[in-house]
Design a protein that fits this description.
45% of the residues lie in helices and 15% in strands. It is α/β, with parallel strands linked by helices. The longest helix is centred in the C-terminal third of the chain and has 20 residues.
């Protein structure tokens, strides 16, 4: 499976400056992880963290996570160029994608694509194999999300960055990922939907950002449930305690899979009897038309991607 179609129910953040966290991440049962050179790494250790990540990617111990990516620094910093050069030149064969944080425009994605192409060429790597994941983290990025989503064929996912986004808008909370107690609705709904629509319009995955209260698993579940209900593919996790809950929340329920199978099979049988001239049927006392069949097919595809048995 290529990283463009890989499952991303849980995406683990791993500080690239910490041998201990990298070692711990190797055995965690997450769908994907990123070795971080950005927020989790202090400026004074950016350079040595690049070398540490290259060494970690070459380690024969490997990672249980089938998709391994690296988050570089954003283009407003002095580190992006060297991040790409050193990591991709040193260990590009072991990198599935680069994560670009704080993306504000399509041109920033295109710049990273061009640089990555040159580094792949110089390093003798297949051109275009390494994908891109882009974080939407502020008001400017959200305004340009549609152009960003169309900026490069390397793009695989759009990722919501709630912490920087909250700071960008001046939201009155220090709890990243949690709902505002003083606001009666879901203050993330608009941004989550805007990112999701842009992602789906361009065939990309949509990934929710982290929930920073790492010991509050129930709070993490609430946050994950909201984005999963909208149709998000997964969520970043910051701690092993969040992994099982994340995998569960973004995996279809068995009863929903069973109902989707009943819908698919019943509609196929009715179509066969009517020579394809079926408008709507009744399944489990509910009307099902072509739109319902598409919903069932999408749910079954998500189940198959998550490795659920009996989805075909």
């Amino acid at each position: 499976m290529s990283s463009r179609t890989a499952v991303r129910r849980t995406v683990l953040a791993v500080p690239g400056s910490s041998d201990r966290f990298i070692a711990k991440a190797r055995g965690l049962v997450v769908d994907a992880l990123f070795l971080d050179l950005e927020d989790a790494v202090a400026p004074a250790v950016k350079a040595e963290s690049r070398r540490r990540i290259v060494d970690a990617l070459h380690d024969p111990a490997g990672f249980v996570a089938p998709t391994v990516t690296v988050r570089v620094n954003d283009w407003s910093t002095p580190w992006t160029y060297a991040d790409v050069i050193e990591v991709v030149s040193g260990a590009g064969a072991h990198v599935d994608a680069l994560v670009l944080p704080k993306c504000a425009s399509a041109s920033q994605v295109q710049a990273l694509d061009l640089l990555l192409t040159q580094v792949e060429h110089t390093a003798g790597l297949p051109i275009g194999r390494i994908g891109l994941e882009v974080q939407i983290e502020d008001a400017i990025g959200l305004l340009h999300v549609n152009e960003i989503a169309a900026a490069s064929p390397r793009l695989e996912s759009l990722v919501f960055g709630p912490g920087d986004f909250m700071a960008s808008l001046g939201m009155a909370s220090l709890s990243v990922g949690e709902q505002l107690a003083a606001y009666p609705g879901d203050h993330f709904h608009h941004v989550l939907m805007a990112i999701l629509v842009a992602a789906r319009a361009h065939g990309l995955q949509a990934i929710d950002g982290p929930y920073v209260a790492i010991r509050d698993v129930e709070g993490f579940r609430r946050s994950a449930a909201r984005s999963a209900a909208l149709g998000y593919d997964g969520k970043w996790v910051l701690h092993p305690d969040q992994v099982a809950a994340g995998n569960e929340m973004f995996t279809p329920r068995v009863e929903d899979i069973e109902r989707a199978l009943r819908i698919e099979r019943a509609y196929a049988a009715a179509s066969a009897r009517a020579g394809g001239a079926v408008g709507a049927i009744v399944v489990d006392d509910e009307m099902v038309d072509e739109a319902g069949v598409k919903l069932a097919a999408a749910l079954l595809a998500r189940g198959r991607a998550a490795g659920m048995e009996g989805t075909s």
